[in-house]
Amino acid sequence: MKNYTMKIIAITFCFSFCQFYAQSNLDSLISIIDNAEGAQKIETLNTVARELADNDPVQALKYAEQARDLAISVGDKSQQASALMNIGLNYSRLGKNNFAKEFYFESKNIYEELKDTSGIAVTVGELGTVYNAIGMYDSARICLDYALTVSEARNDTSTYYRHLVNLGVIYLNQSQFKLALQVYLKALKYFEKTNNSTTISIIYNNIGNVYSYLKDYEKALEYFNSYYLLAKKEQNLFSQDIALTNIASCYEEKEMFEEATNYFLQSLTIAQSIEDLEGVGIIYNSLGHIDQHLGKYEKALKYHFDALEIFKRLGIQREEIVCLRHLGELYKNKRNFNKALFYGKKTLKLAKDISIQEEIVKSYKLLAEISDLQKDYKNAYNFLRLYKENQDSLNAQNSQLQIAELEQEYLNEQKEIETALLRQENEFQKQIIEAQKNIAIAIAAGLIIVIVFIVLLYRNRKRLRETKDWLDDRNIKLEKLNTTKDKFFSIVAHDLKNPFGSILNSTDLLNTHYNELTEEEKRALIQSINNSANNVNRLLENMLTWARTQRGGLKLKKQELLIRELIDSAVAPFLPLAKLKGIEINREGVSKDLNISADKFMMEVVIANLTNNAIKFSFPDSMIKITAIETDGKIEIGVKDEGVGISKDVVDNLFKIDKSFTTKGTEDEAGSGLGLIICKDFIDIHNGDINVTSEKEKGTKFSIILPAD
């Protein structure tokens, strides 16, 4: 049933910024457009363009374009930005995400010029719709985080909770069902108090999605039917289209194919009437899948190829993957194994390109089944092994958002301590009153009562001291956690800002002066974009690796390794970079028969990070020496450069997250400071040590010392 998820998620994002006028109000607004003038006319056109998007995006697009042209003619930048955003919204409704993205960026640029933070936040939220629709979930999350931050800062509770619904959409799309359900139920509780039926219906739809993913189809149907009734009541054709598709998909999963087909055909009629190409493609794909189950292969092929053409045209890669997988399954059933393998491998490649773990798992399973039918047992075994490994990874859900968890842990700790302090303060006040009472009794009753009081007071004070010690300890932990969080956010903010700035500047130049630039200048700008993208990718890989080590997500898996092969594998990706700076990486000091028992992945990461650092801080036309020797039952691996060197105060803080900082290389190469911290963590896991010796302007040597056995 995953074949329709992308459509639902994209709609959920867009809904967050609509006001939902009743049809009678829309008709009234449309009727006054011709008689309105100036600012009133532009504002009315924008309102109609936004509110008509669900039922008639083609007509709504015309109103938005008219609003844009009028706003430009009178020089109203704010309304021009609003119109551009509405144009993007309606292109999104029509499934033309590339067009939508262009207009959202134009709108954002004008809002930035006007310094309108609210407008920027709304437009960035809409950009999240596009990124989510084409499977760029990290970019969608960045957009959503910004929109959430702005709405919270402006104390805009309603918008904040709508963004929270969208956060649940990202969790759902990344198969984090428990987190998605928690977010939806929290938002539902808020919107039920406001009687916002439209937003409630969207949440019903998304909760239905969670249950359908969990294969609880009866529960899913309850929520989807509630969603359909609300959509029908509001005469919202777009939402009716979605609800009918979802209901049909539940019946398809229950193998009630006649009922599923009837609902899909009802949905198809609506999707075609409102020119929802994405919806049409999804329904074609689903009908093809049903015909495939029923053995109607030729009819199924036509549906799948028609759907594939639509998704390629719209640039919706996730849905394209589903189509390709269905074609692989169909040709497997027809025992046309060459075509089945072709589509199976194409599915796997595209799923890997955009990192959709669930589809990677399904692709490996399909390829294993095809190889088994071909009696190619070697490949069948390999594909089955990869299927199980990736299935385990998917079940573990090891892609949870580490930064959000760290911040939430900090907030929970802070709340716990504040509660404890308040409780202790109240208890202390009670003890003072009790002490005064005891003193009065002691004066009247004599020495024995005084002694009893002193004993009680001593015990109370001892308990207070113990509580204070506990609070001091918790405060120290909280301060450390807060410092780590702040430094982590600082690293991310600093190191994302520069490459993204470079990318934006380069793309702006290409966009505005493309015909004026020489081919050499164009290539230089493209190279700059590629370098910046590689820097961002390296930072994200280091962030995810460090986060996994912090929560214990990486387990030590030792195996016998030839050190020379290990070093060659780790260094290989950096040889082109070294060549650009004229740097020779000398590995003659590594014996070819020296081996070690260690985790291959962790050691490759360590050597790769040290090699990357050495290249960054080496002078051009110099040498990096990598050595490995065995002495006194230990293996020592060294990476020595002839670069700028490191001062002693910096060396002392190299492996501390709360002290680490970014340093530019000899040619202004960027870095996050996380690489060395990851090295230290991985070496600690191996019960080893990592040492640094350095001399300014002469170079630095990192030494890894590990047990030989």
Any chance you could write out the topology, listing elements then pairs?
Layout: H1 5-15, H2 23-32, H3 38-51, H4 57-74, H5 77-93, H6 97-114, H7 117-133, H8 137-153, H9 157-173, H10 177-194, H11 197-213, H12 217-233, H13 237-253, H14 257-273, H15 277-293, H16 297-314, H17 317-333, H18 337-353, H19 357-373, H20 377-396, H21 402-445, H22 447-513, H23 519-550, E1 558-562, H24 563-571, H25 575-580, E2 584-590, E3 595-599, H26 600-617, E4 623-631, E5 634-640, H27 648-651, H28 674-685, E6 689-695, E7 699-707
Parallel strand pairs: 2-4
Antiparallel strand pairs: 1-3, 4-5, 5-7, 6-7
Helix pairs in contact: 1-7, 1-9, 1-11, 2-3, 3-4, 3-5, 4-5, 5-6, 5-7, 6-7, 7-8, 8-9, 9-10, 9-11, 10-11, 11-12, 12-13, 13-14, 13-15, 14-15, 15-16, 15-17, 16-17, 17-18, 17-19, 18-19, 19-20, 21-22, 22-23, 23-28, 24-26, 26-28
Explain what the structure shows.
It is a single chain. The protein is α+β, with helices and mostly antiparallel strands and 709 residues long. The chain contains 28 helices and 7 strands. The protein has helices spanning 5-15, 23-32, 38-51, 57-74, 77-93, 97-114, 117-133, 137-153, 157-173, 177-194, 197-213, 217-233, 237-253, 257-273, 277-293, 297-314, 317-333, 337-353, 357-373, 377-396, 402-445, 447-513, 519-550, 563-571, 575-580, 600-617, 648-651, 674-685, and strands at residues 558-562, 584-590, 595-599, 623-631, 634-640, 689-695, 699-707. It has a 5-stranded mixed β-sheet. The protein has a two-stranded antiparallel ribbon with strand order 1-3. Helix 3 (38-51) packs parallel to helix 5 (77-93), helix 12 packs antiparallel against helix 13 and helix 15 (277-293) runs antiparallel to helix 16 (297-314). 40% of the residues are buried. Residues 1-22 and 397-422 have low confidence and may be disordered.
